[in-house]
Write a structure and sequence with these properties.
This protein is α+β, with helices and mostly antiparallel strands and 195 residues long. It has two helices and ten strands, in the order αβαβββββββββ. It has two domains: 30 residues; 118 residues, Superoxide dismutase, copper/zinc binding domain (Immunoglobulin-like, Sandwich), CATH 2.60.40.200. The strands form two sheets. It has a five-stranded mixed β-sheet with strand order 1-8-5-4-2, with no helix packed on it. A five-stranded antiparallel β-sheet has the order 3-10-9-6-7, with no helix packed on it. A hairpin with a 4-residue loop joins β9 and β10. The chain starts with a helix and ends with a strand. About 6% of the residues have low confidence.
Amino acid sequence: MGRGGRRRGPLVAGILVVAVALAGVGLYWFQPWKLWQDETVQEALPGLAAPTSAAPEPTVSEAAESAPAAKPTPKPTPQAPRTLSRGTLISHEHTTTGTVQLIRLPDGSHTVRLENLDTSNGPDLRVWLTDAPVKEGKAGWHVFDDGKYVSLGKLKGNKGDQNYTVPAGTDLTSLTSVAIWCDRFDVSFGAAALA
């Protein structure tokens, strides 16, 4: 074998190593297998009081022993969660459907609830509460990180009903939309204006 053949072997091996490394980085970065993986999450609305068991009725002998029966004190009716605003998700980078609600819970805290969510899975998806306007088409894909936003955490699943706690002290008066945001590629998968 000539000298050219000996030189070509290490060069080909080097090219293969670089190609495998680039393919590995590309797979990690884009995570294309997530497009075929669905994660469904079904969470109940938080803040609903669990049913309490009634106190046992006193026996006849206990009732006879007690002095005049006092009227039972009525228990206060627990407040129900209250929807402050809602919206319908529109598609951006990926087809996205479902509804969004901003809800005040009985304890005064707030949550964003996604219902009947159906979108693509992807890398580093987040739920953002933002001040950006929701725009149709490509004009709306990249606007949500231009202004004020609060990240409510990673998207729990790309399908189902999910709750996201709004941090205490968040000024909700200026935050008027919710986006399913791909933080890795700075693009909205879908968004809803809250009204």
